[in-house]
Amino acid sequence: MKTNIIKEHNVTLHGALREHTIILRPLSDDHLPLLYKWNTDPEVLYWNEGPDADPNDNGDEAVRSIYKQTSNAGYCFILEIDGTAIGECLLCKMNVDYILEIYPTSADVRRIDILIGEKPYWNRGIGSVVVQMLVNLAFNNEKADIIYGITGDYNKRSGRIFQKNGFHLFLERPDKHFKTTDNGPEKTGLEVHYRLTRDEYKNR
Prior knowledge:
By secondary structure, the chain is α+β, with helices and mostly antiparallel strands. Helix content is about 30%, strand content about 35%.
């Protein structure tokens, strides 16, 4: 019997952007060809993983490993608009130790990640709708206490998406995975944390 790489779930979310229909469906092994495509596109990787992201690091085995791990930590979705798959997104348990150390062990801390792999759909407001759909799932269905969106300081667009959905800038710290010389002195970027608590969500 074949063992699935991506752990599936049974949650489907529905949303809308003007006249367009947005659906988040459970991610599955059937979507692996799209995941390979998006995770080896240099321009997509730049905005998703940073200036030092190397498409050659994301071979088939690496992509399978990434999504196997993330799908076991929460809800992975394929993002469709008007029936076309254009990206993927994730609502999962927080997996960053230095963030978890801030809170009591009883706190339910989650994070949201989103990747729009089809570039014609960038800058159309889709990401903001998707983040709101995942926030509603986290607080209304999962009873999460806190949600994070983590991005790099180079990605102002992603930061605006989280802020538009009520997240506040919570922390900036050096990003150890971001190092580039740009033919000059080495530069280290910042990892930017946006946070939304249950109380802030309820009071919006």
